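Students often ask why we bother encoding 3D structure as a string. The short answer is that it lets us treat folding as translation between two languages. Here is a chain of 195 residues written in the first language.
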Amino acid sequence: MFNYKTRLKKAAIGMSLATMLALGAAGPALADTVTGEITSGNLTASIADLNLGSVAYDHASHSMPGTMVLTVDDQTGTRDSWNVTVEASVFEYSGANGIAGTNDIAASNFALGTIAAPTATAGQPVDTGGPSAWSANDDASLDSARIVVSADAEYGQGAYEQNLPVNLNIPAYSRAGTYTSTLTVTAAAGPGGGV
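And here it is in the second language, the structure alphabet:
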């Protein structure tokens, strides 16, 4: 009789397993996954070309004001802090009334005005952590790199525009002709905290 019960149990278990397999309930289902990756982009900054226009020759020093428009876009996805610096080269003379290299206007004659707050054009809005204008560089000459905007970590994850008022002080007796400077705009990871 013992053999009979054992055989009966084995048959019942076998039928139960067969039923479970047939119904797809062989045990707990394994979790299926979907994986995706977000790749890091770049932190970029640029200034559109600026034409300061023209002024008449003068025996006294005078100025040429203008406004540069800075565009910054953080697509790194790192949420790190960042800053942007701007520097100008010497204003090189070209024309028929002087000699290139001797009639240039020094980069120290090109200065920022009161730096405007940036505005968001896409992504994270401007907040207390930035991006922020660096008012410490208001009225600073651009003969060396000056921070104009920065964002603290966790802020500045978007695209922004910033107006940078500038003024070129033209020395007295500057020759008639065209003066051209090259800007170096650098976006870098680094401390935020504009003041």
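Translate back mentally: The first strand starts at residue 43 and ends at 47. Keep this in mind for the problem set.
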